[in-house]
Amino acid sequence: MPPTSAADKLDAIDRRILAALQEDGRLTNVELARRVNLSPSPCLARVKALERRGLIRGYVALCDPLALGLSLNVFISVSLERQRKDALETFEQRVSEHPEVMECYLMTGDSDYLLRLVVPDMQSLERFIVDHLAKIPGVANIRSSFALKQVRYKTALPLGGG
What cellular component terms from Gene Ontology apply here (predicted)? Predict the structure, then answer.
């Protein structure tokens, strides 16, 4: 029998709470309770339990990158000279220092890492690549791809379970 995860122990009400909060993290407890058909006190207790269990990591405001002048969404594939633990740790620590790096994934396949950056313009991208990324020890190859259009973007996770 496979090990159970925290998600396996969610009931329908917990899933409705998570779905509602993923849609609007600013819901008041009273409004959330109304949406999931609970009274406010048990609803708040469930939210606090979901937070304690690590199913809710935090609450954020989603900003519009274009309104903030961040018009380039760039994907960068990076290959390292060697995939040694210390090289991987160094790379991950160094890219994590830059706020324009929105996501960074250790990958299988042709490259070792896939980064997603949001920058205002080509000059900012060039500065990031030349002044920072290319100077990380062990970087062997850098390939950039530009998103022409964002077809889908979401932050809500699929909760399953009905």
Answer: cytosol
Asked if residues 18 and 50 have their Cβ atoms less than 8 Å apart, the reply is yes
Answer yes or no: is pLDDT of 36 > 80: yes
Q: Give the Cα separation of 119 and 131 in Å (integer).
A: 15
Distances (CA, A) of 85 to 80, 82, 118: 11, 9, 28
158 in a structural domain = no
Q: How far apart are CA 144 and CA 162, in angstroms?
A: 39
CATH number, domain of 95, equals 3.30.70.920
Regarding beta strands 72-80 and 113-119, do their DSSP bridges make them parallel or antiparallel, or are they unpaired?
A: antiparallel
Q: How much is the pLDDT for 7? A: 64
Q: How many other CB atoms are there within 10 angstroms of residue 99's CB atom?
A: 8
